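Encode chain A's predicted structure.
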Amino acid sequence: MNKKFSWKRFGRVSKSIAASLIALQAFSFAGIAGNTAAAAEPNVVSTWMWNPYLIQNKDATLTQLKEHEVNRVYLFIDPDFPATYYKSFIKEAKTRGIDVFALSGAPNWVLPEHNKKMYQFIYWVKQYNSSASPEEQFSGIHLDVEPYVLPQWSENSDAVIGLWMDTVSGFVEEVKADTDLTVGMDMPVWLNYTDVRDGYGGRTTLSNWFISKVDQVTLMAYVDNAKGITESVQQEMAEADRAGIPVLVAVETVNNNEHGTSFYDKGSAVMKTELNSVIETLRVHPSLQGYSVHEWDRWIELKP
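Encoded structure for chain A:
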């Protein structure tokens, strides 16, 4: 699934002064800690694996994941794919220090006529975990629903936002009804510009509303430089800090044909340098858990 963020559509917001202050705070904190390199290491490095058939060759795939320092995989669920492959892969992944989350989602899941597909996904994961041994079970469940690519969004975005909020609420409620799975979701970085009812008689940002509902958020900061990434996530990081919700900052490696949104033409070394800078700058936020790279198939094809 190709997740796009258009700066042209939503505009650039200049936060260079705030970014500079945060960078200064990070520098000062590093001096106190006395070990900048160690402190900058992310706790979680994750990726989306939309092609589950890669796990048929689990040894090669897991070796590559470890080479890329990945310790969490969002693995797409194909209900027609034999569960034995998932079990074998997850069991071996855990022995190598890699957690596996069940992944699925589609933009139209927010629409009433397609919403049942989300519940079918949840039921599949629950049934799978109940039939698997502890070492074969998914550690979490991850939702990727991006309704802003639907034609209905341009026709009536307020209505679609309402459906999106209902979808996420329903997702969390159904998962948490009888499991302790970690619930995560993907979120674009411009939702802080949308104002919604907070459910308590007041107003809040849509980003804050989503953050308050789940256990973990992956911010899709699809920009190809550290400065742009850190500027784009400032408000969401502050909201997550207040909520006590872990955040992963994500980057893109797919060619979106949108200038400045992907590392596909810059290579893995440049991406790693920029991500290290992001982690160093943002680690003043207690909510920062690490980073994520979209997507695995494209990541491993990047030039050095």
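Residues 238 and 285 are 7 Å apart (CA to CA).
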